Amino acid sequence: MSLKDVFASLKDFDPKKDKVGGNSALPAGKYYVSLSGVTHQAKNDREFVMFTFEVLDGDFAGRKENVFPSLELVTSTGKPMPDFVLERSIKTIMKIASVIGFEFDKRIFAGLEDDVTNVYEEIQQAFSSHLGKTLTLEIIESRNKKDPDHPYRNYDFYEAEQPTTPEAIEDPFADNPGSEEEIDESKIPF
């Protein structure tokens, strides 16, 4: 992309109110991505697992999208987490596993009542050997009545063809034992 193209892409940037840092979110749509990370993290005494997807092609190649399914049983205000939130989070984790081709051990969720930290750690470990797998990520935005400038972002995931590993090319000189002839270095012109 040329400097002119980059400048043109900033047409909606308002230097009086917009921040310089930070990445703008990927627009709604479908993206061919790879699972580039699964990490258990904590912020403000709240734990979560973060799935990171990297866009592999198109105008947004190299950009990343993070998805944060939460398995916390209480909200940040101390109220019980609504069942639909937990259901959506569990479905998200299971769907990601399914579309990248591995059978996720559902027994991991049996420990939710006891220790969510261990559940997050087990999820991170379960996905660690599947990093780099490809899938299609669909971002769906819906209206946020309380904050119209920040629509709700929902995700869905679909299978994608996994890249094939090229077969090793056979060495054309493998059967050649070489020459026994010695070369006199004084006859080499360089």
Automatic annotation (TrEMBL):
This is Single-stranded DNA-binding protein. It comes from the Bacteria. Residues 160-190 are annotated as: Disordered. It comes from Lactobacillus mulieris. Residues 168-184 have a biased composition (Acidic residues).
